[in-house]
Amino acid sequence: QFMRRVDTSLLNHGLNRLPLERSIITFGSWMGGDRDGNPYVTATCTRDSVYLARLQATTLYFKAIEQLIFDLAMWRCSSSFRKVVDEIVANRPSEEDSVVFEIRRGRNYTDFWKTIPENEPYRVLLGELRDKLYLTMEQLQKVVADPSIELDLDDGSDRFIHSKEDLSGPLMHCYESLMECGDEQVANGYLLDVIRQVQCFGLNLVKLDIRQESDRHADAVDAITTHLGLGSYKEWSEEKKIEFLKSEIEGKRPLIPHQLECSNDVREVLDTFKMIAYIQKKVPGSLGTYVISMATSASDVLAVVLLQRECGGTLETSLRVAPLFERLDDLNDAPRVLRQLFSVECYMKTLRNNEQEVMIGYSDSGKDAGRLAAAWGLYEGQEKAGEVAKEFGVNLTLFHGRGGTVGRGGGPAHIAIMSQPGGTVNGSIRVTIQGEVIEQDFGERENCFHTLDLYTAAVLEHTLKPPEGPKPEWRVVMKKMSDASCKRYRSVVFENPDFVPYFAQSTPSTELGSLNIGSRPSKRKPNAGVTALRAIPWIFAWTQSRFQLPVWLGMSAAFTEIKEQEGELGTLREMHKKWPFFKVTMDLIEMVLAKADLNVVEYYEKTLVDERLRNGLGKELRNELMATINHVLEIADRRELLVNPESKIEVDGQQCPAQHQQLKNKLQMRSIYITPLNVIQSAYLKKQREIEEMEASNDSSFDNLKYDPALPWAQDMMKLHPSANAFKSAVNDTLIITIKGIASGLQNTG
Predict the structure, then answer these.
(1) What does the alpha-carbon distance between residue 481 and residue 329 come to, in Å, rounded to a whole number?
(2) Nearest 5°: CA angle at 122, between 116 and 123?
(3) Rounded CA gap, 223 and 260, in Å?
(4) pLDDT at position 257, please?
């Protein structure tokens, strides 16, 4: 329906419809494919995810074809279409009336069980398509129910729907015939919608991306080289790694021994690559991109190319490989890595249509260096990556790994895209939409249309009229602020020994890892402090306590250093008014600062934090938050956060506050409900930690903790924990309720 809206707009302006063979929007997913630090996503899990997605898509298309059989009852058709129908009729079995009728009736078709007459040509063709979809659906149901059954859709016959073209081809035949016979209104009705759906969603609804950490691939190659007596791959220099990988990619002999001795982790990596080759053979078109998280070098990409080939992949079936540059140093080094990668001839031969995808991480870069330094690193990294791609004649697509919260790169879609460097969009963009944002942006039909409108308009606008780049002096200022901000952020988060205990005590970070509310472990590696903590719980924990620290920490130091230089305050204000990137960055930070509440932060500290930490680091950070707010107000030339008295909009002839003022009013109303939840949460966090201390010390009083609810709903909740201590379970449930309530009220929580 969104594509129909775009078509209508084009036609109203005297332009043609969108091409039928293309879709301006496609969807991907990595649910069941993202194994980065998640031990539960295995090769089997990936296969099951693909089969389930294809089964769901086939079921939906089956229903759509049944509807089209009802709709397309006309007898007129083109001569070429008639030939196709005549061929179908000629190949019908002689006993079709009796045998096929019973078969179709057993399939519980909506109607048209009997032989469809030749004078209803569209129904004849669509009936044939319906039969194929049903058989495909039946086969998929079998393999989903019993994984030991081998999926075989390519048995040499044409009984099944094997590729997207098997479905889109007959539909396009119908469309072209109707148009040729003058039935444009019918052709451009529901039939056109189904054709658009096929082009957009394919046979799997979404293409499943695979993601794995670069170290896991290095471990796999290291196990192979060690077994073969070539030495430890991980100890080699980058140049030696590249030379080895190049020679193996260009060579023809197999590299992996049949009896390779390796760890379970290495075996799982190799099983994943074998499963990729299997899926590409059995259900082609189901997989999208292989994303390498924590990528730091060209060898990280070449290792994946080699492992795909060694595990059964071919040049045609291997997935495109996208390095994910996440940390600030990796973003700064990305242009050099890409230049080194594009200089490898055997790698360039693997690029389809000379296209390279590069993913940039907003979450881990922000956790690594702070929001301001990460934002500037991402901006410069995109510019330089684009220049390298242009130098080698490569068509670069940037994959933006944005989260829902500002601390993870989130923000309104249109302004976020328009603030990207000029020349980095070029008609295409990939973005991640995660967690709560999926529901907010796509949960209702009109919200979905609005979101797609914003993305489409922003990509078109940025491509046709790229924003101007910053002035040279603005770049100098941003560089200074980025360095000062990063230095201050890292000195607190990674160098101050009090920070980790303060973080653990003042937020529900520890509890988030034990509560069953996440899709994967909160840390990539156990007991590795903040470094291994994932960006989602990192942001989420600070949001729960209303401190919002990851977004603003380091900014006060950056602004102080710049403002001390004569005349630079005027430069900052000019940047805020005239540079989209800086304005968007500052406006989003201002919005997050408006959600912070020092009173709530102090209450959490008094309830949960040791006095030494509270009066030391806690006080220091609270003062820094106040200083940051004052700096933001000074640069934006405002008296209060989200308040600009000169900004008004007209609604129904009346002057009303602009959008930021409306947001401020909403936040004030929500705070009435959120703050009591914060009070309850802090009390139950304290109680939860006391219970854990009792358990750890084998305190006998733990067994005496009782909870015997009188209310029916509370009794029902306790039935969910039959074997656990009732009191501890009640505390856990209360914490989960407060976490959900605070997250829903604040939004953009991570």
Answers:
(1) 16
(2) 30
(3) 8
(4) 86
- From the CB of residue 746, how many other CB atoms can be counted at a distance below 10 Å? 22
Angle at 513 between CA 718 and CA 722, to 5 degrees: 20
* Residue whose C-alpha is closest to residue 557's, from 613, 623, 615: 623
- Distance separating alpha carbons of residues 215 and 201, to the nearest angstrom: 33
Do 288 and 237 meet the contact criterion of CB atoms below 8 Å apart?
no
Residue 469: band (very low, low, confident or very high) from pLDDT cuts 50, 70, 90: confident
CA atoms within 13 A on the CB side of 524: 19
The string of pLDDT tens digits covering residues 92-143 is 766 555 566 666 666 667 676 567 788 889 999 998 899 899 999 999 999 9
DSSP secondary structure string for all residues of 587-622: HHHHHHHHH--HHHHHHHHHHHS-HHHIIIIIHHHH
Asked if pLDDT for residue 89 goes beyond 70, the answer is: yes
Strand partners, 322: 291
Q: How many CB atoms lie within 10 A of CB 516?
A: 6
Return the pLDDT at 750: 53
Task: Give 599: exposed, middle or buried? Use CB within 10 Å, 0-12, 13-18, 19+.
Answer: exposed
Q: Do the Cβ atoms of 402 and 362 come closer than 8 Å?
A: yes
Pair 57, 201: CB distance under 8 Å: yes
Q: Which two tokens stand for residue 549?
A: 């620290």
Mean pLDDT across the chain, nearest whole number? 86
DSSP state of 643: B
Spatial distance between the Cα atoms of 322 and 397, rounded to a whole number of angstroms? 10
Start-to-end Cα distance in the chain: 30
* Element at 108 (helix H, strand E): none
Name the amino acid, one letter, at 458: A
Sign of CA dihedral 580, 337, 275, 526: negative
Helical (H) or strand (E) element with 304: helix 298-310
pTM of the model: 0.86
Q: What are phi and psi of 433, to 5 degrees?
A: -125, 115
Of residues 426 and 701, the one with the higher pLDDT is: 426
Structure-block tokens of residue 626: 């106040």
Q: For 287-315, what is the mean pLDDT?
A: 94
Q: With contact defined as beta carbons under 8 Å apart, do 419 and 387 qualify? A: no
DSSP tag of 525? S
Do the beta carbons of residue 632 and residue 560 sit within 8 Å? no
Confidence of residue 507 (pLDDT cuts 50, 70, 90): very high
Q: Mention every residue, 6+ apart, whose C-beta is less than 8 A from residue 376.
A: 478, 479, 481, 482
- DSSP letter at 189 equals I
Contact 238, 79 (CB under 8 A): no
Res. 62 pLDDT band, cuts 50 70 90: very high
Helix axes 2-12, 445-464, angle to 10 degrees: 50
CA distances from residue 500 to 520, 529, 550 in whole angstroms, order as listed:
22, 7, 14
**Which residues neighbour 575 within 8 Å (Cβ) at sequence distance 6 or greater?**
470, 474, 477, 582, 583
Token reading at 463: 């491509």
Q: How confident is the model at residue 403 (pLDDT cuts 50, 70, 90)?
A: low
Show the tokens assigned to 694.
Answer: 């009792």
Amino acid in position 205: L
Question: CA-CA distance, 52 to 61, in Å (whole number)?
Answer: 14
Distance between CA atoms of 561 and 569, rounded to whole angstroms?
A: 11
